[in-house]
User: Fold Aldehyde dehydrogenase (NAD+) from Streptomyces radiopugnans.
Amino acid sequence: MSPMFEYAPAPESRAVVDIAPSYGLFVDGEFREAAGGRSFKTLSPSTEEVLAEVAHAGAEDVDAAVAAARRAFASWSALPGSERAKYLFRIARIIQERSRELAVLETLDNGKPIRETRDADLPLVAAHFFYHAGWADKLAHAGYGPDPRPLGVAAQVIPWNFPLLMLAWKVAPALACGNTVVLKPAETTPLSALFFADVCRQAGLPGGVVNILTGDGSTGAALVAHEGVDKVAFTGSTAVGKQIARTVAGTRKKLTLELGGKGANIVFDDAPIDQAVEGIVNGIYFNQGQVCCAGSRLLVQESVQDELLEALRRRLSTLRVGDPLDKNTDVGAINSAEQLARITELADSGEAEGAERWSPACELPERGFWFAPTVFTNVTQAHRIAREEIFGPVLSVLSFRTPDEAVAKANNSQYGLSAGVWTEKGSRILAMANRLRAGVVWANTFNKFDPTSPFGGYRESGFGREGGRHGLEAYLDV
Ligand code: NAD
Assistant:
């Protein structure tokens, strides 16, 4: 189907952000080379252009960063909460002031549309710092005792799908509670974390309170295993999360894990179809489906299945896939060649196992990593595409007849991170929410995030909560 309108190109200027040819590690308030002199390149996934060369931290750098965080902990944790809050407010305001630079940088390094970095990632990043700034002097009223104490040095390892937002989810509560931080961003998206290091300097944050080590899985493994660390917070794949749990087991370290998901988006026959279609699109094509809480399984009541699928296909035919810096783009690039290969392999398995594959007509750019929005119908619960996390723009559609069947199918997963319910009946929303084994249940909406609301998983989606009053517990000695 041809689009109703032709859109003229509307590119955001990449000149608003300066990218240096190379970056060092941020330790003790200064940038420095990796002790071993190693580095790696970070690419723009939409063009495969090299954006910068980044230092690769090894064991010696991990030692230095943890030692710097330890030294800084004494004075940072002794500050009155109202003083720590001032730094967090300052960071939040600088992020707002520099949000255009950061949005462009994040889009270049990650491949997600500028519309998302500008309208979702960056406002949420600032909101997380504002929100936690507000907690810093009120911890005695958070429900964790009259004088809750910080844990010490937090080792934080984050993925590439929301690079700066995952940083904010980790750094803001840690600092508000009086901890110091060593953070390792993902190897494909280090640039916004390095920009954040500069924001910390601009805010006058004392050296060593936030340290940023770029590197790969080996850097992350050395960091979480370091004996000078008191707390480990990880967001990423379930496989790596299990490895980290084994490393940390039997030590004094406190651990939180935010892992994968296979969220069910459940549409009942009384749901407003057009609204549900928007929620389905937002649920699985937002950020190219590279979202741990994506609504990757659509469960639709059989009586409205045909009508819903027809409306969904019509809507998908209007999605604009392409240059992430174009303000009209809905679906950008996949983050890396490795992730594209993973998505391709799983989608191919769907076809091989007998599901029916459909994508709207769309021209994909020649260079870069791209995957067309895809819908699978005739999916059974045994198919890999119904069980495994694809982490890409691929929707698996299953049907149900009764609420019981919907609950049974939704809960038939090793994961338990998110779910969505679409219905006109408030009583049904509450009944479903009680029975769904998911950390977050959205009703007549999807992928809504707010710093005041705790987020986290059940089962193999991990444990611990981030955000809200509940999220503070992970950074306090309670
Ligand atoms: P990944 O687990 O491979 O990598 C995540 C981070 O861990 C990266 O920084 C990586 O360098 C580091 N790492 C890799 N091996 C490590 C090791 N042995 N020890 C310590 N650190 C190590 O995951 P990914 O492919 O980058 O990210 C995608 C996954 O993240 C998906 O499964 C997704 O569901 C999950 N995710 C979950 C959430 C959540 O909040 N639950 C949010 C975003 C992403």
Summary: The chain is about 40% helix and 15% strand. The pocket of nicotinamide-adenine-dinucleotide is lined by residues 157-161, 184, 186-187, 216-217, 220-221, 224, 235-237, 240, 243-244, 258-261, 292, 389, 391, 417, 457, 462 (CB under 6 Å).
